[in-house]
Specification:
The protein is of the alpha/beta class and 564 residues long. 43% of the residues lie in helices and 15% in strands. The longest helix is centred in the N-terminal third of the chain and has 17 residues, at 3-19. The protein binds one DNA strand of 29 nucleotides through helix 2, helix 4, helix 7, helix 9 and helix 14.
Length: 564
DNA sequence: GCCGTTTTCGGCCCGACTGTTTTCAGTCG
């Protein structure tokens, strides 16, 4: 899939045009880029079907450019633009405080071509002398170069979530604070988070901002006003806080939660009704007619409440206006976790530990699925050990009340697509999960397809093998995978490990549209990691999964019937 | 460059904060 490649080029064209001072076209290219970026289908397939122009934001011109890229691997006009661009616009624009205007001036006046030039010019005190620049700007640039150079990528949701919860808690303890909500991409539960956006209502905004900017782990204050402030923590995370009135809380929460694209679409709906929407409310002739709650605003715009995880302007607005939004899976709908590891394959907790911890979540069942023998590094079990484990599981299951312990295994799909455990052993297990754990460069599609054809295999774990910000994943034909999953009744996993979240939101949505069934598992290697289930559920919600699309929302009997 | 319950031309979301300015442009979200 080259969707991300295409999207990146469209974004770059937007930047290039903006630097040239072209108006409005950058907006069009960015919109097209977003469409391609979040497309669940392969852009090449859309092209082959001749349907590029059906995509939102893609017209004749951009369609032609995409076609050119798919056919020739190049876009002439883009190459031309890039050739004429004398400086490294990507890295210069990544410096906080520098936008297209300032970057252009820096090149014209000081011949700044890259971050090193920029750093030199700043250190020599040349920048402060430029019109529109000053000493503070120069100092900020120097600091922000450092940040741009070592900028850690976005933070994993699984890491950001507990940090946000802790800061929320701290703010809640102030007596001046009434409400605190972390909005932004965290509230939408995106798999990675750029910064935290915290919304507050308070009897004394100044005091809250004062506390916020002087919290113990604040490293820098980026901005500070009476109602809005930004800080950077020592761990590099940026937090924006905003204090609003109770009467504006809903509209501010909407605005602050985003996505930007969702908000723009909402504002357009407002305009079509001769209304104006901003973070201060929904206005009719300058009179606020909604704003206290998000529900109010949506209602006055003629639609029901839209769950934050769906607010990406990927079709939710159209359905909402028709009152046809799906009811997506809830955070309390999961009744069991079907993928976890124990001390049998080298992890800290035993079967009973895992079961007892799982019971806290209200689960009715779990499945123990240790690794198998070809995964030596994980102390994978062989046939004999699996049979021995079966007896142990029966014993613990008998001992514990209120939760059923099933016996499974996460078997390895070898390079030839053959499983590393004999079928005679597999058929005695309650659940067989198959996954690729080695040889990522081979033909993963064929390997997985072959595994799915095995009647003992119920679930494919982490189907694409990607690790967020670290590994791209196997080269895989997802359409083929979905076809085969549907044909054989094999369940596809949403793996809740913070680094995996695999399938991801876009692919999970495509799988559902394909008619595949999903399971949300933690793949926990300790009791602690059982807590990650909420991350997987978040992915499912972002994929618009309904309860019925996910097999482990069912009672034990019904769930078992969904297996092969 | 795209798009249409303000339709094939004329718009394109809206507002806060900052720094460098004597009223605002640029950047950000």
């Amino acid at each position: 899939m080259r969707n991300l490649e295409v999207a990146k080029i469209l974004y770059e064209i937007a930047d290039l045009l903006e630097l040239k001072g072209v108006e409005f076209k950058p907006y069009a290219y960015r919109r097209a880029a977003q469409t391609v970026e979040s497309l669940s289908k392969d852009i090449e397939d859309v092209y082959k079907e001749g349907k590029l122009e059906d995509l939102p934001g893609i017209g004749k011109n951009i369609a032609q450019k995409i076609a050119e890229y798919i056919e020739t691997g190049k876009i002439k006009s883009y190459e031309g633009l890039k050739k004429k661009m004398p400086f490294d616009f990507e890295s210069l624009l990544s410096v906080g405080g520098l936008g297209p205007k300032k970057v252009s001036i820096l090149y014209k006046k000081l011949r700044v071509k890259n971050l090193n030039d920029l750093e030199k010019a700043a250190k020599l005190g040349k920048i402060r002398k430029l019109a529109g620049f000053g000493e503070k700007t120069e100092k900020d640039i120097l600091e922000n170069i450092g940040i741009a150079k070592m900028r850690n990528e976005r933070m994993l949701l699984g890491i950001a979530l507990p940090i946000a919860e802790e800061i929320e808690q701290r703010l809640k303890e102030l007596k001046e604070v009434r409400k605190v909500v972390t909005a932004g991409s965290l509230r939408r539960r995106k798999e990675t988070i750029g910064d935290l956006d915290i919304l507050i209502t308070s009897s004394n905004p100044t005091k809250v901002m004062e506390y916020f900017t002087t919290m113990p782990d604040v490293k820098d204050i980026i901005a500070k006003g009476p109602t809005k402030a930004s800080v950077r923590l020592k761990n590099g995370l940026q937090i924006d806080a905003r204090v609003v009135k109770d009467s504006e809380f809903g509209s501010a929460l909407l605005y602050f939660t985003g996505s930007k694209e969702h908000n723009i679409a909402l504002r357009k709906v407002a305009i079509s009704k001769k209304l104006k929407l901003s973070e201060y409310g929904l206005f009719k002739n300058n009179k606020q007619i909604a704003g206290k709650t998000e529900e109010d605003v949506y209602k006055k715009l003629g639609m029901p409440y839209i769950e934050p995880e769906m607010r990406e302007n990927l079709g939710e607005m159209e359905l909402a206006l028709k009152h046809a939004l799906p009811k997506i899976i809830g955070y309390n709908d999961i009744l069991g976790d079907l993928h976890m590891h124990t001390n049998w394959s080298g992890n800290p907790n035993n079967i009973e530990d895992m079961a007892l911890h799982a019971k806290h979540f209200g689960y009715k069942y779990i499945c123990i699925t240790d690794h198998t023998k070809s995964l030596a590094i994980e102390h994978g079990l062989n046939e004999k050990q699996i049979e021995k484990q079966a007896k142990e599981i029966k014993k613990v299951d008998k001992k514990l009340d209120g939760i059923k312990i099933l016996h499974g295994a996460e078997v390895n799909i070898n390079a030839d697509g053959i499983l590393d455990i004999r079928n005679e052993t597999l058929k005695n297990l309650d659940i067989v999960i198959a996954g690729i754990h080695s040889g990522f460069k081979g033909n993963a599609t064929e390997r997985i397809v072959k595994a799915m054809e095995n009647r003992n295999v119920d679930i494919i774990s982490h189907p694409t093998g990607r690790l967020i910000q670290y590994r791209k994943g196997y080269d895989i034909d997802l359409q083929k995978l979905f076809d085969k999953a549907k044909e054989t009744g094999t369940i596809l996993e949403i793996n809740s490990q913070p680094k995996r979240l695999d399938l991801n939101d876009i692919n999970a949505r495509a799988a559902i549209e394909h008619g595949c069934r999903l399971v949300i598992n933690t793949d926990a290697h300790s009791t602690e990691q059982l807590n990650n289930m909420r991350l997987g559920i978040a992915v499912a919600r972002r994929a618009w999964a309904k309860k019925k699309d996910v097999i482990n929302t069912n009672s034990l009997d019904k769930m078992l019937k969904r297996l092969k």
